[in-house]
Design goal:
six-stranded antiparallel β-sheet, about 80 residues, globular, single chain, mainly beta
């Protein structure tokens, strides 16, 4: 099992399972978008300034700001 990191810290192509959503003003919005505990998520794209990120979650592509994805802790998948 990997370590827990902020979702914005996963590299493009990285995957993991959501461990926790930290208390923040956007927590309800994030859970409504499908960012819930134990859900698998993959990083699809980071824009040039790394201020916006695209994630694949529950069959959909969702874009989040870095400030929002910083509040999502994931357990990074490790492959040997």
């Amino acid at each position: 099992m990997g370590e827990n990191v902020a979702l914005c810290d996963l590299p493009v192509g990285g995957t993991g399972r959501i461990f926790e959503i930290l208390p923040c003003v956007c927590k309800n919005r994030l859970t409504e978008l499908g960012f819930t505990e134990n859900t698998r998520v993959a990083v699809l794209h980071k824009n040039i300034g790394e201020s916006a990120y695209a994630y694949y979650i529950k069959g959909a592509v969702i874009a989040l700001r870095k400030e929002e994805s910083r509040n999502i802790l994931v357990t990074e998948d490790c492959y040997v």
